[in-house]
Amino acid sequence: MVERSQKEVWKITPWVMLLLLLGNFALMAFDAREANSRQRVIRVWAQTSADFVQSPVTFISSAVTNYFSSISSMRTAQSENDALKQRVQELEVEVQNSKSLAFENERLKSLLELKSETAYRFLPAQIIGRDTSAWFDTSIINRGSLDGVKLNMPIVTNGGLVGRVTAVSPLTAQVSLITKDKSGLGAVIGALGTSNALGVVSGTGKREILEMGYVPGSVEVNVGESVYTTGQDGIYPAGLKLGEVAEVRAGSASEALKIFIQPSAKLSSMQEVAVLIYEPPARPEFDKSLPNANKKK
Amino acid sequence: MEHVKITTALIVAVLLQWTLRNVAEPLAFIDFPLIIVVYAALQGSSIRALFYGTAAGIATDALSYGLLGANGFSKTLVAFVVAEIVRRVYVDNLLLRIPVIAGACLLDDLVYYGMHRLLGQEPTGEFVTTLAYTVIGTTIAGTIIYLLLDSFFAENVKNRRREVFTARRQTRRRNPIRLGNRR
Question: How far is A158 from chain B (nearest CA, A)?
Fold first, then answer.
């Protein structure tokens, strides 16, 4: 091995730095240009290898947290038990009612010759990691392409829509939240088909609030109304709950309303999510040929 | 042996960066790989610090939504700047290291943010808040980690100080009083 003097080392250091900076810059330029098409192989490899570290750490940390939270919850267990017993009795009555309603529903459906079918399949997943940079806010789940996860598949919780898959490796997938600044999706306030309050919901960068724009100022919107996806964005299916209207800033006949929505999914504390196995219907490709160009026969 | 120890510390730092945010959100504001890269630069091994910066940065970027190479770029630059400072100024003291790690974190974040803006990518985090929290978190964590690392590298620290401050020449003076007594 060649021994270099300190002076020689200091001489070559700037050149080494320049070389490394150029390499990093090339990587960045490549990554930025191709961001919306296919993924980088290096990302897929890194995500796959990180899964072997992230999964055990998440398992251990959640086990420790659960242990301590179970100890603290023992104190309130007795009073909760009494309240739950009462609630069970109430629910039993409700279940009886809903059973009769379900029976009635089946009967009416059969009358209308409608087939009952589940629209989408859910794949339960656990959040095993978060974005390594404080500047971004994505999550990593323990389901990947081997489980059938694909790019842009919606992620939901029992509360509602969480986001979509933005990168997939064989064992893991990266999830971008709906609260991300540049995210946007078609939404409607109230029931799709009957409501005129259609607009675009976009992220604000804050986890507690979403913003909805392009809703005509003439439409009446009330605080507390539910907001659902319309499916017109070509990514999310129609009918997924986004949240509830938290604030409405009045517009006019010519000015759109500014609506703030509180997401119904608990984005700050979620640990369990589900991947919606949904692929949007293929859109017809636009004819890119020039109208006056000679077409090959 | 020292290189092995720093490399091990760097690997641990990357693993912590990958996992700790899922345990507690505020830990996202501590840049563990940067702390080790700056420590390597403080040891005076400039070229090694540059490579550590690139490797740790790309490993961090691979699991981030940000641009691949942005952290590598900023950490390499930071490693070079810190190595240049170490060459010119004596910073082998915990109190002097605090502004160095704070400055390094500030530079790292500014370059990272700037590169994203330059290439048309908008980071989600609010600029001032994220910058402030990261600088505070990384500085506090860095100071504690440096104390720990110095205890691991105690022998190297002693050797380095011996190189910087050459031992004072020991001259023996005759005692005039004793000489007087002889008479």
Answer: 20
| Residue in A274, A273, A160, A153 with CA at minimum distance from that of residue A226 | A160
**Which spans in B43-126 are helix H?**
46-62, 70-88, 94-118
For chain B positions 123-142, those within 8 Å of chain A (CB to CB) are 123-126, 130, 133-134
The full set of domain ranges for chain A reads: 1-37, 53-112, 120-279
Domain ranges of chain B: 2-182
Burial class of residue A144 (count of CB atoms within 10 Å of its CB; 0-12, 13-18, 19+): buried
Which H or E element spans position B132?
Answer: helix B127-152
Backbone angles phi, psi at A246, to 5 degrees: -105, -30
Nearest-angstrom CA–CA distance, A246 and A262: 6
Chain B: residue whose CA lies nearest to A24 = B69
Token representation of residue A22: 């150029």
Q: Measure A239 CA to nearest chain B CA, in Å.
A: 27
The minimal CB distance from A136 to the residues B47, B66, B72 is found for: B66
Q: How far apart are CA A174 and CA A176, in angstroms?
A: 7
Comparing C-alpha atoms, which of B23, B28, B32 is closest to residue A59? B23
Q: Is the ipTM beyond the 0.90 threshold?
A: no
Collapsed DSSP state (helix, strand, coil) of residue A256: coil
Is A36's pLDDT higher than 90? no
Chain B, nearest residue to A54 by Cα: B19
Residue A58: φ, ψ to 5°: -65, -40
Ramachandran angles phi, psi of A75, nearest 5°: -65, -40
- CA nearest B41: which of B86, B77, B3? B86
| Model confidence pLDDT, tens digit, residues A58-95 | 888 878 888 888 887 777 787 888 888 888 888 887 88
How many Cβ pairs closer than 8 A exist between chain A and B? Answer: 164
Which residues in A lie closer than 8 A to residue B77 (C-beta atoms)?
Answer: 17, 21
A137/A207 Cα distance (integer angstroms): 9
pLDDT tier for residue B154 given thresholds of 50, 70 and 90: low
Q: Does the reported pTM lie above 0.90?
A: no
Q: How far apart are CA A171 and CA A189, in angstroms?
A: 37
The correct answer on CATH 1.10.1760 for the domain covering B2-182 is yes
Domain spanning A120-279 has what CATH number?
2.40.10.340
